[in-house]
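During the reporting period, we have paired protein sequences with backbone structure tokens. One record among many follows, to show the layout:
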Amino acid sequence: MKNKFPLSEELEFLSEYACYLLGCGVHTSRVFRNTHRIGEALGVEVKLHTFQKNMTVSIRDNETREFMTNIVSIPPLPISFTRNVEMSALSWEAIDYNLSLDEIRHRFEKLKRKKLISRWFVLVAVSFANLSFCRIFGGDWIAALVVLGATFVGFYLRQILTKQHVNHFFVFFVSAFVDSLIATLAIPLKSNTADIAIATSPLFLIPGVPLINGVIDIIEGYVLIGISRLVNAFLLIVCLSIGMACTLMIVNDSLL
């Protein structure tokens, strides 16, 4: 039989694991399933209650019936589907191979240290994705190339501001404003679809993951966290819209 660790250490790890998953953009039911799975491997019963920025984690030892509760903050982390898959796989390894807390923690820290996709690769990929959207919606090549440049600058600005821990609502406003303002270069360049360039340039700011997770959470019964995610996503869209509105107020006459 594997060594039993103090309940406080198990609670600390399970709290960190669950919060890390939520911070990476995992929907709530998956976080609960993965955390319960690791708790089963450690011989404890896990209860979770989560909001937008914090989580309550309670565990009970299956043998001693000792009970402990912890309240932790959910860290703002880059959304990573690869990391989510790896963390889910860890929960299966924990129960399939009967891993100890030390072994699980070691693998967890190793996964956290793995490098994510290069931000430069993401920057270029997102820029070309927005170029493609512009073409799909009927933009000509002048508009598409302007969108490519505007997205590159706007997304790079978002990366810089996010890295400096600037308020994310302000980040969305500034990024949308700068991005759409640069997209107005399609007007003096005589593009016939300058309006499409301006409309598609900030599409990279649409908070798709919070919107999807919010709907999934509500459908699966996690109504409070689902609503809070949808409200947060709605406010981000409002900030995006205000940024674009500022651009339109500047160039409105040029579009008519």
Summary: The chain has ten helices and three strands. Residues 183 and 198 are 5 Å apart (CA to CA). Strands lie at 44-50, 54-61, 67-73.
